[in-house]
Design brief:
heterodimer, A: 296 residues, mainly alpha, MetI-like fold, 76% helix, 0% strand, B: 305 residues, 2 domains, 13 helices
Chain lengths: 296, 305
């Protein structure tokens, strides 16, 4: 009898405890969502303000307090902003530079990664360590001597200094791809080898197709890096017809420093391709960061 | 048989070197060569047009009495000290929120990460407008909350804090790295802790923080190195103000100063010397974090070196 009573008591106590835990859980969840939504709003407001500012008239942009929905929306700002400087030309230049850089980085880095992961040869370990060590060298120290090198080669004011080095691989990407290559089972390649495939064929027909996720991550990162780069184009490109979008935008701000609506219109258009690429390839961005961040 | 194996090994060596040859050539031409050249140039005066003249350690001595050099160091360190801990804390907080097995997690992650990959020039231009003391939304929001409205980039003492505020918008990369670290923490640890009656705070201090300390360590090193290569924002926002580095050089970041010396004033020797000092500082800071890491970084299982 007593045992039964105490058991019932225990049960109701545990039920009460569970219920209160559920209540605090639910409260906790609500707080979490509230903070997530709040942070999201804070992160999105600058972008929202970018777009509304781009659509305001030259008077409305200086109205205080803020007008959040421009009336009327000045769509003409976009054409005005993008035709004052030859942004079409800048876009084409940026596309060519980013495309060549990506091509070079993906192909050469994959090739070197293949060399490091598939063959055993004297000096391999040391060279691989040297490669990792180069990741620690700050780029600023190379700025001046590389400029002098390209100057002597007569490459200043051309795309060459921005694109040619990519065709010699990049330590960080080589490392990423090599990590991926190490996971490819030897049996696969042995079979191909017996079938008489040479090393190039094994590289191109087995390793490359199997490593699409890693190679895509490298491609996406490389493209983003080249698209967003500012310092190298600033140093190497002098004539306006060679400018990239970032260089053009920086100059645009210098010329029209109070016409914020036009500046915001140009910025919106320059950000857009990155936003689109991000939504198409989000998976690879996240994957790339994880490969670098977690193993680094 | 033995000769066959010998030949095979020679062939493998040849193939290996063939495939890594692009990187070796690149290393020699674009890195090793320039590094050696830079070491020599730092001991010369060189303006690209006339041959370099050897001056010994003169450039390094000049640096000691160059007020702009000290200003650049001060600005960069001040920025690193403020932004790195703040950004890491915010990124960790956001990652902790996302790690609560919430619905729409992917959407929130997308929103938090998006600004981190936008072009830095466009971001700087946008923030130049946000930070506008008169018409910017930041000061409008501060005014709405009854808080003081600083002059931001127009006031020397508010210039670095303005860059710090801007940096918060770009913590997405760090957040993604933290999130992955958090998701690698074994759930059993939390379950065991709950059985022992640990609350949220205890779980965070005694499990989460030690388990992600290697990630924290990595981010700390990257953050310090990042401050010394902070250029684009400093250039774009400093443009047209003072000497191109904000009011009374309040935004003279180290890399910006190096650029100005090397490429505006064509003092290639002095800029090379600045580069070596930067390299030395980054190395020292990394070593410091690395040495101290034994005290606070926990490597579980020992399978990670």
């Amino acid at each position: 009898m007593m045992a039964l009573a105490s058991r019932a008591e225990q049960e109701s106590a545990s039920r009460r405890a569970r219920r209160s835990r559920q209540a605090t859980d639910r409260l906790g969840r609500a707080v979490v969502y509230l903070m997530l939504v709040g942070t999201s709003v804070c992160f999105l407001i600058p972008l929202f303000w970018l777009v509304t500012s781009a659509l305001k008239s030259s008077d409305e942009i200086f109205v205080f307090p803020q007008v959040w929905i421009p009336h009327p929306a000045e769509w003409g700002n976009f054409t005005r902003a993008l035709t004052t400087l030859p942004f079409g030309r800048f876009a084409l230049n940026t596309f060519v530079i980013a495309g060549l850089t990506t091509l070079g980085n993906v192909f050469s880095s994959a090739m070197v990664a293949y060399g490091f992961s598939r063959f055993r040869f004297p000096g391999r370990r040391v060279l691989f360590l040297v490669m990792l060590a180069t990741l620690m060298v700050p780029g600023q120290i190379l700025l001046v001597p590389q400029f002098i090198l390209f100057y002597k080669l007569g490459w200043i004011n051309s795309f060459a200094p921005l694109t040619v080095p990519a065709f010699f691989g990049s330590a960080f990407y080589i490392f990423l791809i090599r990590q991926f290559f190490m996971g490819i089972p030897a049996e696969l390649t042995d079979a191909a080898y017996i079938d008489g495939a040479n090393e190039w064929a094994i590289f191109l027909r087995i390793y490359v197709p199997l490593s699409k996720p890693a190679l895509t991550a490298v491609a996406v990162f490389s493209f983003q890096g080249a698209w967003n780069d500012f310092l190298a184009p600033l140093i190497y490109l002098n004539s306006q017809k060679l400018y990239t979008l970032q260089l053009g935008l920086s100059e645009f701000q210098g010329i029209f420093h109070t016409q914020w609506n036009l500046i915001m219109a140009a910025s919106t258009v320059i950000m857009l391709p990155m936003v689109v690429i991000f939504f198409l390839a989000q998976r690879y961005f996240i994957q790339g960061i994880l490969m670098s961040g977690v193993q680094g | 048989m033995a000769r066959d194996r010998h030949r095979l090994r020679r062939r493998e060596t040849a193939m290996g070197y063939f495939f890594i040859s692009p990187w070796i050539i690149g290393l020699l031409v674009f890195m090793a060569g320039p590094l050696v050249a830079s070491g020599y140039l730092s001991l010369t005066n060189y303006n690209l047009l006339t041959p370099p003249t050897f001056v010994g350690l003169q450039n390094y001595r000049t640096m000691l009495s160059d007020p702009n050099f000290w200003q650049a160091l001060q600005v960069t360190f001040y920025y690193a000290v403020l932004s790195v801990p703040l950004d890491l804390m915010i990124a960790l907080g956001m990652a902790l929120l996302l790690n609560q097995r919430v619905r729409f997690m992917r959407w929130f992650r997308t929103i938090f990460y998006l600004p981190a990959l936008l072009p830095p020039v466009a971001i700087s231009v946008l923030w130049n407008w946000i930070l506008n003391p008169q018409y910017g939304i930041l000061n409008e929001a501060l005014g709405f909350l009854g808080l003081p409205q600083p002059q931001w980039l127009l006031a020397p003492q508010w210039t670095v804090p303005a860059y710090v505020v801007m940096s918060i918008w770009g913590v997405g990369t760090w957040m993604v790295i933290f999130l992955a670290g958090l998701q690698n923490v074994p759930q059993q640890l939390y379950e065991a802790a709950v059985l022992d009656g640990a609350g949220i705070g205890r779980k965070f201090w005694n499990i989460t923080l030690p388990m992600i300390s290697p990630v924290l360590f990595f981010d700390l090193v990257m953050g310090i190195v990042g401050a010394f290569s902070y250029f684009t924002q400093a250039y774009v926002l400093g443009q047209g103000v003072g000497n191109g580095a904000g009011v009374s050089n309040a935004g003279l970041f180290y890399s910006l100063y190096l650029y100005q010396k090397g490429f505006s004033e064509l003092q290639m020797g002095y800029a090379s010397a600045l580069g070596w000092v930067l390299c030395f500082i980054v190395l020292m800071m990394s070593l410091l974090v690395f040495k101290s890491s034994a005290l606070w970084v926990y490597y579980g299982g020992g399978d990670r070196s």
